[in-house]
Amino acid sequence: MGEIVEPFEFKQCISILKSTGKRAKNLRELRDVIATVSDECIFHHTCQYFLKGHILEYTSDFAHWAGESLEEKALAEQLSNIDPYDFKNIGDLRKELLGVIDDYLKRFPEPREAMPGDEFFFNETVTLIFPIGIRARNLAEFLTAIKYVDSGSIYYHFYEARIRLGGGIDDFSRWIEDAFDKKELAERIKAIDPFMHNTEGIREHVVEAIEEEVRKDMEVI
Amino acid sequence: MALNQYSGISPKGDLLLLQMLSAKLYNISFLHINSTRAGGGVAEILQRMIPIIVELGINARWEVIEGDSRFFDITKKIHNALQGRLETITDDMWQYHYEVNRRNVERLNLEEDAVLIHDPQPAPLIEFRKDGRWIWRCHIDLSNPQQEVSDYLCRYGEKYDAAIFSVAKFARAMAIDEFIIPPSIDPISEKNRELTDEEINETL
C-alpha cells in the first residue's frame, strides 16, 4: 500500500426543511413557480432528491410528482433524463427543467390536475455540514468507516461532491486516486451510477470494491 | 447521559449534531409553553424532550397556561375548525382567548433567550414579547382548515420569528420562516417500545 497523503475525513449533511409557502396543483403552475422560486428551492428538489429515500426511476421531486401524482409518465421520464449534477449553476438547470416542461405543454396543453392534498409543495432547506469525527488513514480503516457512517455521509461524499468537484467526481474516488494512486479502483467507484441506486446501494458497491482491493493488498502469494 | 439511550436507534449523525449545536447554545434559556402538563401529544413530547435539552446544557423550562372551561371550550372549537370542522368563533370568543393569555402573562416569566409556543391556545402570548426569539409550533393538521379561523390565528403567527409545521402542506402563507419538522416519536418511551412475546400473547 502506498504512502498516505491525507486521511479521509468523513463529513455528513443534515437538512432542515423550510416551506416557501408556494404550491402547484397542475403542470402550468409547476412551470410558473419553477421559473421564479429561489435557487435553494430548485437545488433541494433536484440535487437533494438523493438525500431522501427516493424512487429509483426518478431523478428529482419534479419528475417524481409528474409520474406519481399527475401520472404523466412520459414527462416524468423526460424530467428524469436531466442529471441535476451536470449543470454549472442552478440557473442552467432551471432553464433545462422549464424547457422540458414547455415542450411537453406544447404537445399536451391540458395536463391533468393533482388530487386535492397531493399538490406540489415547494420547499428549501437549511443544510448543516459537519465532520463526524471519523478519519481513515488507509483502505482498511476506510472500509470499516464506510460501513459505519450514516447515509447522510454517503450522500455528502458521493452525491453532493459532484457539485463541489464537478465532472462526475465523488470524494471517495478522488481520495483513493490522490492518496494511493489506485486509478483502477478509483475508476470503478467513479463508474457507480448515482441514479441507479439509493445511498445504501452506493454504500454496498463502494464496500464491495474496497473489500476486493484490501483482500488483494493482503495476499502475499 | 439520556442521549446515550438513543445510540443504536437514532442516526449517529443526528446525535452528534445535537451535541455540537448544544455546545454552541450552552447556557441559553429556552422556554416552552403549552396548555397542559398531561394528556395529548404535545405534553408527551415535552415530558421526554425537556430533560434531554437540559442535559445538553441548555436552561430549558416548561410552563403551562391556565384557563377556565370557557377558554378551553373556545380553544377546542378553534382546534376543530383548524382541522376542517365547521365552527363559529365570534369576536367575543377571540377576545376572551386573548384576554386569558394576557392574564397568564402576569404569572409567567417570558424573558428568555428563546420561547417556543405550542399550538393555538397560548399563541396570543406573542403580543407580550419583550425580548428573545419566539417560535410558534403548530402540531395540528392544517390541510383543510376553516379559512377565517386559520387566517385569524395567522395574524398572531406572523408576529413570531418563525413557525414550525409537521408537513409541508400544513404550512400557511406567512411572511416568516416556516420550518417543516415531523412530529417527534420517542422510540424508547414506554408507549413506543417493542413488546415482548409474552405481552403480545397476553393481549391477544
Explain how this protein is built.
- The complex is a heterodimer of chains A (221) and B (204).
- With 221 residues, chain A is an alpha+beta fold.
- Chain A has ten helices and two strands; from the N terminus they run E-H-H-H-H-H-E-H-H-H-H-H.
- The longest helix of chain A has 20 residues, at 199-218.
- Chain B has helices at residues 12-24, 41-55, 69-82, 91-105, 147-157, 197-203, and strands at 29-34, 59-64, 114-118, 133-137, 162-165, 177-180.
- By secondary structure, chain B is of the alpha/beta class.
- Chain B is built from six helices and six strands; from the N terminus they run H-E-H-E-H-H-E-E-H-E-E-H.
- Helices cover 37% and strands 15% of the residues of chain B.
- Chain B has a six-stranded parallel β-sheet with strand order 2-1-3-4-5-6, with helices on one face.
- Chain A binds chain B through residues 12, 14, 16-19, 21, 23, 117, 119, 121, 123, 128, 130, 132-133, 148-150, 152-153, and chain B through 11-14, 16-17, 20, 143-144, 165, 168-169, 171-174, 177-181.
What overall geometry of chain B do the principal axes of the alpha carbons give?
globular
Q: Report the CATH C-level class of chain B.
A: Alpha Beta
In round numbers, the mean pLDDT of chain B is: 93
How far is the first residue's CA from the last residue's CA of chain B?
Answer: 36 Å
Strand order of the largest sheet of chain B: 2-1-3-4-5-6
Radius of gyration of chain A equals 20 Å
Query: What structural class do helix, strand and pairing data of chain B support?
Result: alpha/beta
Number of helices of chain A: 10
Query: If classified by CATH, what would the architecture of chain B be?
Result: 3-Layer(aba) Sandwich
Number of helices of chain B: 6
Give the low-pLDDT segments of chain A: none
